[in-house]
Amino acid sequence: MLPREASSANSLSNSLFDRQADWLARYQYGLRLSEQGNVVSIGDGIAWISGLPSARMEDVVHLEDGSRALVFHLARDRVGAILLRQTSQLTAGTAVFLTGKRLSIGVGRALLGRVIDPLGIPLDDAGPIQFDIYRLLDVRSPPIIARDFVAQPLYTGNKIIDTMIPVGKGQRQLIIGDNGTGKSSLAIDAVINQRDKNVYCVYVLIGQKRSTVVNTIEILRRNQALSNTVLVVAEANAMPGLKYLAPFAGCAVAEAWMAEGYDTLVVYDDLSTHARSYRELSLLLRRPPGREAYPGDIFFLHSRLLERSTRLSSKQGGGSMTALPIIETEQGEIASYIPTNLISITDGQIYLDQQLFARGFLPAIDVTRSVSRIGGNAQHPNIKKEAGRMKLDYLQFLELEVFTRFGSRLEPTMEARIRRGQILREILKQELLTPLTIEFQMAWLVAYNEGMFDHLELDQIKPCLQYLQEQIARTRLSIEEGHEQWRILVRTWLNEMGRA
């Protein structure tokens, strides 16, 4: 053995000896009672256990083969537990032991840039994670007296959302729409936009394919947004128990930062899969089914999760946790069971329409069905003033556009309003992975409201907006500047572009 290896081995043996000596010094003789149960049956991620009369809901139990489970159902003569980790040696008759502990997860800055499962186990190749603090997955939401009003904007970088459907720090804004309409892309854009705004992000992927998970990681890494983001992943082939726990794990991670006074953003992608996983577990545990075979407490499941998102008062540190839950609809039906539940729980919804998507209007946000119950309370006064004028024009245009389909002759004033509406619709189009600064939002709002785009053709709108964006990046103009200064600068830039 080399001298260095011998020294390392000696130090390791000394460390083990010291720990054993310390344990022996603290050991006390006495009678100890413990319960031991046995596995009755196993199947589909569920273990039925007998012989644990002191078991409580959400207790963690250890199985003799090394598996772990979470008590999830209490029957008269047995306990139903959802498996968190299952070994190949797990069979009926395996001994089960109570731990007296609830499920927790390691939290802290060590998680930034990492990919973990709902138990905090790393899924990437960056090595183990050293945790100093652990936090329970399922806790009560902050009381009313610990909360403050939502008054600070959380910018997503999207033209439509930041101007017409604003999101505030501490808000719960639902993203809803059919499959393939761009819900996840919208959430990823919001995460990317937080990379330089001192907002910690948690992206929870529930029941997604591995290719989707890898693609999400690569997009965040390519856009320098992975360093302030944690990904909590329960893949499609994961046990139903892990898919059920995934959003609670992500919430616990974000909640720890909120308690320290930081602003956080957590995305649940998506809660439709989460609801189906919970329904699967409930049916396997023989709970009485309700509407659409969902258990009766499905509403409570999501409400206790989303109620934890809030803005804390200054006495509590002033941190915030903004939630963007994603829910999937079928054929645009928002009145089905799970979507209506989440609409009633959240502070508004961003609705993505399949028909708008098919027409090429991206992002396919239907402004008429989308709403933010926080509204202008979470907007900068300058943006609020300019966006109010623009939104009224857009809603009137959508109503007037219906009449043009009949081929009727319109008055010149009506034609002018429809043309302005068409220009605005072209302005509101936005490509994926291109979050925009709030200063640029202010620039195009002023330009539109002052009629600076009225003389342009539709194909000239995009290069004009790109020129405005370049000028904003060069001048570093603040959103705090008054309307008149914005109007003069924007008009000067557009005149320079016209001369060029």
From TrEMBL:
Annotated keywords: ATP synthesis, ATP-binding, Cell membrane, CF(1), Hydrogen ion transport, Hydrolase, Ion transport, Membrane, Nucleotide-binding, Translocase, Transport
Highest rank taxon of the organism: Bacteria
Enzyme Commission number(s) of this protein: 7.1.2.2
Domain ATPase F1/V1/A1 complex alpha/beta subunit N-terminal: start-end pairs: 34-100
Chief location: membrane
Its membrane topology: Peripheral membrane protein
One of the record's GO cellular component terms: proton-transporting ATP synthase complex
CDD domains: ATP-synt_F1_alpha_C, ATP-synt_F1_alpha_N, F1-ATPase_alpha_CD
Domain ATP synthase alpha subunit C-terminal: 379-475
Positions marked as site (Required for activity): S370
PROSITE patterns, A to Z: ATPASE_ALPHA_BETA
Coiled-coil ranges (or none): none
InterPro entries linked to this entry: ATP_synth_asu-like_sf (IPR023366), ATP_synth_asu_C (IPR000793), ATP_synth_asu_C_sf (IPR038376), ATP_synth_F1_a_nt-bd_dom (IPR033732), ATP_synth_F1_asu (IPR005294), ATPase_a/bsu_AS (IPR020003), ATPase_F1/V1/A1_a/bsu_N (IPR004100), ATPase_F1/V1/A1_a/bsu_N_sf (IPR036121)
Compartment(s) where it occurs, according to its Swiss-Prot or TrEMBL record: Cell membrane; Membrane
Residue ranges constituting the ATPase F1/V1/A1 complex alpha/beta subunit nucleotide-binding domain according to the UniProt record: 157-372
Enzyme class per UniProt: translocase
Annotated function: Produces ATP from ADP in the presence of a proton gradient across the membrane. The alpha chain is a regulatory subunit.
PANTHER family given in the database record: ATP SYNTHASE SUBUNIT ALPHA, MITOCHONDRIAL
Family: Belongs to the ATPase alpha/beta chains family.
Name of the protein in its database record: ATP synthase subunit alpha
Organism: Nitrosomonas communis
